[in-house]
Amino acid sequence: MEPHPSHPSLDAPGAPDPAGSLGPLARELAALPPSLGPVRLIGVDGHAGSGKSTFAGRLAAALGGAPVLHLDDVATHEELFGWQERLRTQVLEPLAAGRTAHWTPYDWVARRFGAPRPLEPAPVLLVEGVGAGRRALRPHLARLLWLETSREESWGRGRNRDGRELSDFWDGWERAELAHFSGDPSRPFADTLVRQSGTGYEWTSGAPATPGAHRFVTERHGLPPA
C-alpha cells in the first residue's frame, strides 16, 4: 500500500507507451508459464513513492491492457501490511481455481470497504504495491519486479506528491514500511530490477535472463546497441 488514495482501484491500461519501449519486457512476461491457475501473476514492488503505479500502468498498456490490482485498495488504515489473508481469500484462491475473483476495495477517505468488484482470471495480472513480493505472495508470482529507487528518494517523492496534509500519515507509514521490510524483504527475491531514467526505464533480469545483463529502454527507441 502507498499513502496516495487518489488513483482508481483497478487501473485502465495507464499511460501510453507509444514507442513500445516496454514491449520486450511485456513479451517476456507474457511468455512465462502461468503461476496462479491460468494467470501469470506479476508482482511490482518497491518503496512507497518509487513510481510503481506509473510503471505498472505503462507495463499494463504494453501488455495490451492487462489489469492492475493496487495493494492500496486491499490495505486499510489499521492494516497497512496485514492484508495478506484478505488478498488470499478474495483474489488468490478464486484465480487459482480459474474463477472470477470478487474483491472489496478500501476507500481511504470514507474509511470503509466498498462494493465487491470482479476480477477475471486474465492471462497476465499485475499486482502493484509495497509488499507485492512478500513471503506469503511469492509462491504465486510468475515474476517479481522491484523498482530500484532508494528509500530516501522514494519517500521524498511521496511526501512532495501528497503534501503537508498527509505528513502525519507518512510519518506512520515510514515506520511501518521499515518494520515490514526488516522482517519480510522483497528486493533480495526480485527476478527483475527496474530503474527509471530521464527517457524511460532500464531493467536487469535475474535468473530467467543472462545474469548481469542490462536492457536499456527509452520512450523513443527500443533496445539500443550494447
What does this structure look like?
It is a single chain. This protein is an alpha/beta fold. The chain has a single domain, classed as 3-Layer(aba) Sandwich (Rossmann fold). Helices cover 27% and strands 19% of the residues. It is built from 5 helices and 11 strands; from the N terminus they run αβαβαββββββααβββ. It has helices at 23-30, 52-62, 84-96, 151-162, 167-183; strands at 40-45, 68-70, 101-103, 106-107, 112-113, 117-119, 124-128, 143-147, 192-197, 200-205, 214-216. The strands form 3 sheets. The protein has a 7-stranded mixed β-sheet with strand order 2-7-1-8-9-10-11, covered by helices on one side. Strands 3-6 form a two-stranded antiparallel ribbon. The radius of gyration is 17 Å and the shape is globular. The relative contact order is 0.21.
Please render the helix and strand layout as text:
Elements: H1 23-30, E1 40-45, H2 52-62, E2 68-70, H3 84-96, E3 101-103, E4 106-107, E5 112-113, E6 117-119, E7 124-128, E8 143-147, H4 151-162, H5 167-183, E9 192-197, E10 200-205, E11 214-216
Parallel strand pairs: 1-7, 1-8, 2-7, 8-9
Antiparallel strand pairs: 3-6, 4-5, 9-10, 10-11
Structural class: alpha/beta
Structurally, how many domains make up the residues? 1
> Are there runs of 5+ residues with pLDDT below 50, and where?
1-15, 207-226
Dominant shape: globular
Give the strand line-up of the largest sheet: 2-7-1-8-9-10-11
CATH class: Alpha Beta
Task: Kindly report how far apart the N and C termini lie.
Answer: 37 Å
